[in-house]
Amino acid sequence: MRRVVFLQNVSKVFKDGTKALDNITLEIFENEIVLLRGISGSGKTTLLSLIGALDRATEGKVEVDGVVVSKLPQSALEEFRRKNVGIILQDFGLIEYLSVYENVLAPLIPLNLNKKEAAKRVQEALKKANISHKAQTKAAHLSGGEKQRCAIARAVVNRAKLLLCDEPSANLDRENSKQFISLLQELHTKGHTIIVATHDPIFEELLPTARKIHMTDGKIA
Ligand SMILES: Nc1ncnc2c1ncn2[C@@H]1O[C@H](COP(=O)(O)OP(=O)(O)O)[C@@H](O)[C@H]1O
Ligand SMILES: [Mg+2]
User: Phi and psi at residue 28, in whole multiples of 5°?
Assistant: First the structure.
């Protein structure tokens, strides 16, 4: 199977001296669902931010989709992220006064695609997340479940196969968390590799076959 993520002896020390990641070695393969567990402060967000090219490792090698991200110059990191990674954060971060269509189009703007290609990708992402019927609705007017679908469409519109989710259920009730997990399962069947940082037990309950990685003090158990 193809290796999508490879971390080798990765450490991250913040400017104030906090060692958030301590000598992590980790491989994640195509089409895995990985639950990254661990209490608050154990390093989950930091790990996702290195995989998602949002931040750089202090030491070690970070490889994503065969690209050694840890060797890319700062200027190339952002472009790498825009093209290769989908990210879903806790509050989904939709722009409330924009339509679903506009929210999903937004990540493509910096890619300078021609209009036709951009429109095609937006339609494809809306379809994948089952939200095409709400394309013209403002995000503010969506139900909780529809917001999730919109956030998922936006995360996959760049056609990235790697999807990173950081505590996605933090602001969801049980019913909405269930819906979100079934959306992840749909994406998984469509070939996405998914990493979810969460300490919410509902993910283990509903994704019993997912691979679990437990973090403690910046280390993998
Ligand atoms: N920008 C930062 N500067 C300094 N310390 C940080 C920064 N971001 C996170 N940390 C620290 O790194 C450790 C890991 O944090 P984090 O990755 O956010 O953990 P988690 O997501 O598991 O709660 C914590 O001790 C946290 O306080
Ligand atoms: Mg976190």
Answer: -130, 135
Q: Which of 131, 132, 120 is nearest to 158 (CA)?
A: 120
- Angstrom distance (rounded) from CA 79 to CA 23: 27
pLDDT at position 194 is 97
pLDDT at 62: 97
Q: Ligand 1 — pocket residues by CB below 6 A? A: 14, 16, 18, 20, 38, 40-46
Ligand 2 midpoint to CA 146 (Å) = 24
pLDDT at 221: 86
Instruction: Please give the distance, rounded to the nearest whole angstrom, from the Cα atom of residue 56 to the centre of ligand 1.
Output: 14
Residue ranges and CATH numbers for the domains of the chain are 3-220 (3.40.50.300)
Question: Do residues 129 and 156 touch, judged by C-beta distance below 8 A?
Answer: yes
Q: From the CA of 199, how far away is ligand 1's center (Å)?
A: 15
Query: Which residue's CA is the closest to the ligand 1 atom numbered 11?
Result: 20
Tens-digit pLDDT profile for residues 27-42: 999 999 999 999 999 9
Q: Report which protein residue has its CA nearest ligand 1's atom 1.
A: 14
**pTM, two decimal places:** 0.94
Residue 197 is encoded by which pair of tokens? 């940082």
| Order of all β-strands in the sheet with 211-216 | 85-88, 162-166, 193-197, 33-37, 211-216, 219-220
Contact 209, 41 (CB under 8 A): no
Interval between CA 17 and ligand 1 midpoint (Å): 11
Q: Is the pLDDT of residue 155 over 90?
A: yes
